[in-house]
Amino acid sequence: MATAHPIDVHVGRRLRQRRRLLGLTQEKLAQAVDIRFQQIQKYESGSNRISASRLWSLAKALDVSISYFFEGVNGAEPQLDFDLRAEAGFAEAPAEGLLDEKETMDLVRYYYRLEEEPRRRLLDLARALSEV
């Protein structure tokens, strides 16, 4: 079996991240683009390439531009796990695939549902707890 191309893996990860951020199941997304959920699984793993027309349908269903799926690709090779260290102040890299975790995406989704003031207070709380 051939190894998935890094671009296909990257696009699949972006698909999974956006789907989870919106709180959609693979089944719901598959229904929206009139395919089976198993195909969504294959797209998300990078084992199946996404055609241009299907990518357009997925982008429309997920309310993003097609370029969204390629964000983070630098030059010829994609950057599969971007480096959050400098921005977040980590001394070491966060866990690989951090944004692939359902719990992480749930946290982000619920965080952005909050009004500005509770969001700021929650961020302050997380910052204080991380210093313990």
Automatic annotation (TrEMBL):
SMART domains: HTH_XRE. It holds the Pfam family HTH_3. One of its GO terms (cellular component) is cytosol. Keywords: DNA-binding. Signal peptide: none annotated. The keyword Oxidoreductase does not apply. GO terms for molecular function: DNA binding; DNA-binding transcription factor activity. Residues 15-69 form the HTH cro/C1-type domain. This is Transcriptional regulator. It comes from Hyphococcus luteus.
